[in-house]
Design a protein that fits this description.
about 210 residues, 10 helices, about 75% helix, about 0% strand, single chain
Length: about 210
């Protein structure tokens, strides 16, 4: 029963369509049909031209992940696996929202909120790698993918250290690796198409520069 309750909590909180509601209410825009179609903070900024709206979406989506972990830990203390399942389900329902014909965001803010509560090591590593990647390429999508892949490799290679920064404590390295794999895979899957698009743009730009020279 505790696994089912964790899944329900994660699914319901993760499925709250923050960006959709805010853009509909404030701008009368269906975010699914505008910009990239992504139901998240970055696309909210792009189509609304408002950093404030984007920030609100980011904070609420972050809170969905954090609250998922908090509530599960409140009911079931000292069991890492339950909030781990809950946050993975929350990111899944955010990415494939049942109220929006299974269209959604890319899961970064919700995953960040959950990680902040259950595995801050992962969040801090991801943020550091994202900053380095962004400064190198000046591209948000490429930075997202690079930080996600590199974070995974770093957690796997330092799992004996990383496991010490889980709250509640993970009972095994394998449990932590599976959690990290699922969570980051959910993010990567939603980045495949935009990542390919960005690479194509960079290749076309490079060809244009070569032809100009």
């Amino acid at each position: 029963m505790q696994y089912l309750i964790s899944i329900i909590i994660g699914y319901l909180l993760g499925s709250i369509p923050t960006a959709y509601f805010l853009l509909k209410i404030t701008k009368g825009i269906d975010i699914r049909k505008s910009g990239s179609g992504n139901v998240g903070a970055y696309n909210s900024i792009t189509i609304s031209k408002s950093k404030f709206i984007g920030l609100i979406v980011l904070l609420i989506d972050f809170s969905k992940g954090f609250l998922t972990v908090y509530l599960i830990n409140y009911f079931y203390q000292d069991i890492f696996l339950l909030p781990a399942i809950g946050i993975c389900v929350a990111v899944f329902s955010h990415n494939y929202n049942p109220w929006l014909e299974f269209k959604g965001g890319r899961g970064l803010a919700t995953a960040a909120g959950g990680s902040a509560a259950i595995f801050p090591f992962l969040l801090l590593v991801w943020l550091a790698l994202w900053v380095i990647s962004y400064l190198y390429k000046k591209n948000i999508i490429i930075a997202n993918v690079s930080a996600t892949v590199l974070s995974y490799l770093l957690v796997i290679s330092t799992v004996k250290i990383a496991v010490k920064f889980t709250y509640p404590s993970s009972i095994s390295y394998f449990e932590l690796i599976i959690f990290t794999t699922i969570l980051l895979s959910l993010i990567l899957i939603k980045h495949i198409i935009p990542f390919k698009d960005e690479i194509k743009k960079l290749n076309l730009s490079a060809r244009g520069n070569n032809n100009a020279n």
